[in-house]
Amino acid sequence: AIQMTQTPSSLSASVGDRVTITCRASQGIRNDLAWYQQKPGQAPKVLIYGASNLQNGVPSRFSASGSGTFFTLTISSLQPEDFATYYCLQNNDYTWTFGQGTKVEVK
Amino acid sequence: QLVQSGADIKRPGASLRLSCTASGYTFRNYYIHWMRQAPGQGLEWMGVLDPSDGGTHFAQSFQGRLSITSDTSTATAYMELSSLRSEDTAVYYCAREKVVYHALDMWGQGTVVTVSS
């Protein structure tokens, strides 16, 4: 099974900061990766699909890139509503795998 | 939307059956995935169902004790997990896959399951 290593596990940041989260796949997954945001007590919400495509309705401060084994999610200017946990999810084969998650906390 | 069944408490060794009822779209046109999240932990992908033909795929860690089925007449997907243990205590989510984009674009509200003696 494909393993996803997501870093960091947590980070502290301030409103307006630029934040970057990374995911590494244990083998090449082309661009078969999505990013999700989860707030406490809520179901996750898709932000990015196909490694770099912004889901409808998601603010443009979110961007992502990567292919093969290395992927990044960037929030260009952190807003108060962005404090949450972020997960990558690979969908390259028949069984999918989440990264461990990154909790973005208030500094 | 996807509406999941209510919270449940199970004894170790028992089986669990959760439902996920879809509305507002053509049920057969979207895969249904099941995920779970143990208390304070990350998300874990469990398996996927193609409602159009009943085809399924499961995470290796659930092989042999996970089943996902559907009733297209009621637009409902079911997840059954057997031989429950305390580590299966979690919030269970269903979600719809927008197949062209491989994105889980609609989620259920989650079902809290507690396994305890």
Summarize the structure.
The complex is a heterodimer of chains A (107) and B (117). Chain A has 107 residues and is mainly β.
Give the strand tally of chain B: 11
Helix-strand sequence of chain A:
EEEEEEEEEEE
Strand content of chain B: over 45%
The major sheet of chain B is characterized as: 7 strands, mixed
Which structural category do the helix and sheet elements of chain A fall into? Answer: mainly beta
Radius of gyration of chain A: 13 Å
Summarize the amount of helix of chain B as a percent range: under 10%
Give the CA-CA distance, first to last residue of chain A.
Answer: 36 Å
Oligomer: heterodimer
Describe the structure.
- The complex is a heterodimer of chains A (107) and B (117).
- Chain A has strands at 4-7, 10-13, 19-25, 33-38, 45-49, 53-54, 62-67, 70-75, 85-90, 97-98, 102-106.
- Chain A is mainly beta.
- In chain A, a hairpin with a 6-residue loop joins strand 9 (85-90) and strand 10 (97-98).
- Chain A is globular and about 35 Å long.
- Chain A starts with a strand and ends with a strand.
- The model of chain B has no long low-confidence stretch (mean pLDDT 96).
- At the A-B interface, strand 4, strand 5, strand 9 and strand 10 of A face strand 5, strand 9 and strand 10 of B.
What would the keywords be for this entry?
heterodimer; A: 107 residues; mainly beta; 11 strands; 0% helix; globular; B: 117 residues; seven-stranded mixed β-sheet; four-stranded antiparallel β-sheet
Topology:
The complex is a heterodimer of chains A (107) and B (117).
Chain A: E1 4-7, E2 10-13, E3 19-25, E4 33-38, E5 45-49, E6 53-54, E7 62-67, E8 70-75, E9 85-90, E10 97-98, E11 102-106
Parallel strand pairs in A: 2-11
Antiparallel strand pairs in A: 1-3, 3-8, 4-5, 4-9, 5-6, 7-8, 9-10, 9-11
Chain B: E1 2-4, E2 8-10, E3 16-22, E4 31-37, E5 43-50, E6 55-58, E7 66-71, E8 76-81, E9 90-98, E10 103-107, E11 111-115
Parallel strand pairs in B: 2-11
Antiparallel strand pairs in B: 1-3, 3-8, 4-5, 4-9, 5-6, 7-8, 9-10, 9-11
